[in-house]
Design a protein that fits this description.
Layout: H1 6-13, E1 21-29, E2 36-40, E3 45-47, E4 50-55, E5 57-60, E6 71-76, H2 81-88, E7 93-101, E8 111-112, E9 117-124, E10 128-135
Length: about 160
Amino acid sequence: MPTPTTAQRHKLNRDPVVDPHIILLEFQEDGKSFVHRAAINTEDVIWRGNTYDRAAISVELPQTADGETSAQITASNVNRIFGRAINAATQRINVRLILIDAAILEADPIIDTQNLLVIPSASGSATQISATLAPRASLLEPVPAKQTTKADFPGIWLA
């Protein structure tokens, strides 16, 4: 999993944000080769040869609490793409979240979750799809290890 550089973290935390960032999402059902790609953006995005369709998607971050952490994701279902995919799914849906710099699309991603997120439950209507976005670690499956350093989270380390 890529680790943001110090310069990327500084750029991300700058207020006001000078260059926008784009969140790309990939949805893939276990055992299937087709990947649904979406960009939280007002226009389609081409990144690394793949086209990410513009989508009206919002993510509600979880509250801090004991127990399992999950976020709520809501996507427009006007074009019925996500609704059909979720209704047709018979296996777990894996989710990859990628954060890229809109000014330098060919650069490495700032954040890339690989396939470490899943959708354990979803519901929908004619206008929108709501789903729970949870970590794959909650499935008690092995995940890639990464050692945390002071550069990743400077606030939790004593000087």
